[in-house]
Amino acid sequence: MSGLTERSNNQIKEQILGCGSFVWDIKNKDTLEWSDQMYSLIGIDREETITIDRLKSFILEEDYNEVYENLKYNLINSNVQVDLIHRIVTTNGRVKKVNERLRCSYDENDQLIKVIGVCLDLSYNNMRDYSTRLNNEKFYRLFGDAPIGVSLLRTDGTCFLCNDSFIESVFYKEYELKDLPFYSLIDDEDQRSFISLYNSMIDNRIPSFRNEFRIVNKDGAKVWHDITVSSVKDIYDNVKYLIAMTQPCQRNMKEGPRKGLINSIREEINDLSLRDSLSGLYNRQYVLRRLRELILVFYEKHLTFSALLIDVDRIKNINDTYGHACGDKIIHDLSEIFKSLTRESDICARWGGEEFIILFPEMDVETATSLAERVRTEVKNTIMMWEGKEIKVTISVSVTSYTTDDTLKTFISKVDDALYRDKHDKRDYVRRI
User: Which of 48, 102, 164, 295 is most exposed, with the fewest beta carbons within 10 Å of its own?
Assistant: First the structure.
């Protein structure tokens, strides 16, 4: 009886708030459990089974890609809370704007196991988050088309709303900025000064501040901005939220040549730290950085990438027979072969010891497998010389591509497992995993 009472109370709450709820358990991938109010929100029969494909059909076509990218971005980062604001089409053809707030649960391997969601009808006349919705409308009406960047910040410094000018100036997507601490966009050398001024506002010591700070764009470029931050207070003189206005300043023009020289030197030093000294190829650290970028592209643009995982066969025998200097030369000569067979956009790196990895952006596994066979054949047909002696070398190559079932962690594990197996399986071959 208590269970029925609790369910009845939940239905009343959802009706009052104009929202519905649902649960998606990864163990039952295809179907979702919907509350009665969710059925009412969409206008469908309560007896209908809701599948993932059916759920997709309710989302307005123009909003679907943005919803998909937003969700994938948050899941790949194992974010617990996700907000999706989009439009749905009910069965009677009415378009409603909704805010889906998702609570995501993950296992110890950061694999999604359960999602609990609340879908709030923003067109519904209720008081839940009323002030927030009013602020949204005011914000976009006042600042949506402003030529300068404008961001609405919570008192803890995280971004709540950003207009198009600010989003375009930092090259982030709107959902990437949501809940991001604003100070994290400020260059490390300027952060302490910015945070000090910000805290002075929160403590009501100053009403606002204006200063020049460097903002670091998503691509890593640092641009001087004139930043003004003002507070909005309630009737009790407590800070409710803050407004940050940003625009590039003249200082960028004055420091242009010097900045270019410094950046050039930094890039050269940084490049050296990301390369393996023996082979001249990139190292494991660089591959991990690029993998994160390729995974984001995979979810944002739906472009997969493939990888060749290369293990040099019996390198220990070569070291034992001819010495480690010979083994080092073999590693160097193989690196030259790999570089000659790859494009400028490909990432060719030494993974460790006698192990190499080649990443092919925007390439399917079939094409990568053909390239792997070419690399294997080229190495086998190359005679390497050491102190007048001919040495034949072979390699074992595993080929894989990134899929929706992968994460950064599982993909790296797949790479390490493949290279480990290559040391114990047959030699001089190409296989797909």
Answer: 48
Tokens found for residue 305: 């990438």
**Full-prediction pTM beyond 0.85?**
no
Residue 312 has pLDDT above 50, yes or no: yes
Question: How confident is the model over 216-237, as a mean pLDDT?
Answer: 85
The whole-number average pLDDT for the span 89-106 is 83
Q: Which domains does the chain have, with CATH numbers?
A: 2-121 (3.30.450.20), 130-254 (3.30.450.20), 275-432 (3.30.70.270)
Q: pLDDT by residue (tens digit) across 125-140?
A: 443 333 444 456 666 6
Has residue 8 got a pLDDT over 60?
no
Q: Read off the pLDDT of each residue in 257-278 and give the average, rounded to a whole number.
A: 58
Neighbour-count burial of 48, counting CB atoms closer than 10 A to its CB (0-12 exposed, 13-18 middle, 19+ buried): exposed
Task: Please say whether the beta carbons of 149 and 62 come within 8 A.
Answer: no
CA distances from 249 to 165, 253, 370 (A): 15, 8, 51
Q: What is the pLDDT of residue 288?
A: 87
Distance of CA 221 to the CA centre of its chain: 18
Averaged pLDDT, 41-46: 80
Max mean pLDDT range (42-51, 189-198, 249-258): 189-198
Q: In what order do the strands lie in the sheet with 355-361?
A: 347-352, 355-361, 305-312, 395-401, 430-432
C-alpha–C-alpha distance, residues 125 and 18, integer Å: 8
